[in-house]
Amino acid sequence: MPSTNKAIREVLNELRSLGEVSNAAVVSRSGMVIDGDAPDHIHMETFGAMMAIMLGAAETATAESSDPLKHLHVELVDSLLIITGAGQRILLACFITKKEALDQVLPFVEEAAMRLKTLV
Q1: Long-range contacts: 50-57, Cβ < 8 Å, 24+?
Q2: What is the SS3 assignment for the chain?
Q3: Best CA proximity match to 38, nearest among 10, 63, 16
Q4: φ, ψ (nearest 5 deg) of residue 26
Q5: Whole-number pLDDT of residue 120
Q6: Spatial distance between the Cα atoms of 64 and 41, rounded to a whole number of angstroms
Q7: pLDDT digit string (tens) for 52-77?
Q8: d(C-alpha 72, C-alpha 99), whole Å
Q9: What is the model's pTM?
Q10: Considering Cα of 83, then 84, then 90, then 96, what sign does the dihedral take?
Q11: Which domains, and CATH codes, for the chain?
Q12: Which of 4, 9, 47, 71 pairs with 65 at a CA distance of 20 to 30 A?
């Protein structure tokens, strides 16, 4: 049985191997980066904190809705950032290189989040 850290890294590497996922990170709900990466110019401590804040704010804003939050996506000029919960303790953030690839990549991101949920 692989260690949790190794298993998390394996999930992230599988996502990056899709080609359309340039970067992927697992972040605690408190904002600490557990593993993964972001584009070179992004400070990882700030990135982790902001991912937790953004997802937490979206969950709070939709908490009273009868339709629970599935994921949050941030549209950038040429790419997308997908943030999704992976249980009560962590979240998954992925940069997708092409906006057109969202429908193709999203099932893999959701499956990765489900796998991570069982690990942490």
Answers
A1: 51/25, 51/27, 51/83, 51/91, 51/93, 52/27, 52/28, 52/91, 54/83, 55/29, 55/83, 55/84, 55/85, 55/91, 56/29
A2: CCCHHHHHHHHHHHHHCCCCEEEEEEEECCCCEEEECCCCCCCHHHHHHHHHHHHHHHHHHCCCCCCCCCCEEEECCCCEEEEEECCCCEEEEEEECCHHHHHHHHHHHHHHHHHHHHHC
A3: 16
A4: -105, 130
A5: 82
A6: 37
A7: 999 999 999 999 998 989 999 999 99
A8: 14
A9: 0.94
A10: negative
A11: 4-119 (3.30.450.30)
A12: 47
Residue showing tokens 């996506």: 73
Tokens of 59: 């969950």
Which residue's structure tokens are 């303790």?
89
Report the alpha-carbon distance of residue 99 to residue 87 in Å, rounded. 26
Look at the chain and count its residues.
120
Strand partners, 82: 73, 94
Pairing assessment for the beta strands 72-75 and 33-36 based on DSSP bridges? unpaired
